[in-house]
Amino acid sequence: GQQVMQIPQYQHVQEGEDFTTYCNSSTTLSNIQWYKQRPGGHPVFLIQLVKSGEVKKQKRLTFQFGEAKKNSSLHITATQTTDVGTYFCAGPLGGGTSYGKLTFGQGTILTVHP
Amino acid sequence: AAGVIQSPRHLIKEKRETATLKCYPIPRHDTVYWYQQGPGQDPQFLISFYEKMQSDKGSIPDRFSAQQFSDYHSELNMSSLELGDSALYFCASSFGKSYEQYFGPGTRLTVT
Questions:
Q1: Does the CA dihedral A112-B1-B3-B5 come out positive or negative?
Q2: Is residue A60 scored above 60 in pLDDT?
């Protein structure tokens, strides 16, 4: 079936190091969204990418959408302990009018050691 | 800013019982989504409603049903509960179907 694959599953970094998580879809996406979920919390929307090759930045976070709109990445520069959590990518894989039917990647659990 | 409200936050039920989870979307949001998240898992889409009509259906068991009311709040009804239904249930809302989703704090359901 249609899938969204995300790697790595886990990432342990020292505070100040960079972090990247990658997301690949089996099909072309109309858009891709990124969410962060802190331990014990709920997913929090970070950003939505719509255009082919789009790059968006939020302070230390850089999001990219591939030219073919099938892959995406999230890069965090100089991680801080507040970056700890699980980062999910999610895309509407339902097709047709199923724009909101998000399929989430497996998530990347980020641990930051002070 | 107002957020998505879910109630109850925690629920303990026994096998074969029923449960009703409630969701109050952000004001003026017209779309509601329900997700199930098992331990260490990603959220799995269950069902969504747009303007009070079911818009998409995911991996929702036949034992579950949901609806969205005239005030846009939604309820997820779960019957004949099984141990495997123990999970976090999130409700999310958005303005329109193709935009970012705002998640509520979740209801933790434990079936014993």
A1: positive
A2: yes
Tens place of pLDDT per residue across chain B (112 aa): 789 999 999 999 999 999 999 999 999 998 999 999 999 999 999 999 988 899 888 889 999 999 999 999 999 999 999 999 999 999 999 987 667 899 999 999 999 9
Are A100 and B56 inside 8 Å of each other by CB?
yes
Q: What tokens does A111 get?
A: 């641990």
Rounded average pLDDT over A86-108: 81
> Using an 8 Å Cβ cutoff, are A27 and A93 in contact?
yes
A89, β-bridge pairs: A34
Residues of chain B neighbouring A41 (CB-CB closer than 8 A): 105
Question: Which is it for the CA torsion B105, A102, A31, A109, positive or negative?
Answer: positive
- Contact indicator for A4, A91 with CB cutoff of 8 Å: yes
Interchain pair B104, A42: CB under 8 A: yes
pLDDT tens digits, one per residue of A10-39: 999 999 999 999 999 988 998 999 999 999
Contact A92 B98 (CB under 8 A): yes
| SS3 assignment, position B84 | helix
Closest residue of chain B to A98, computed from CA coordinates: B56
- A35 chain-B contacts, CB cut-off 8 A: 103
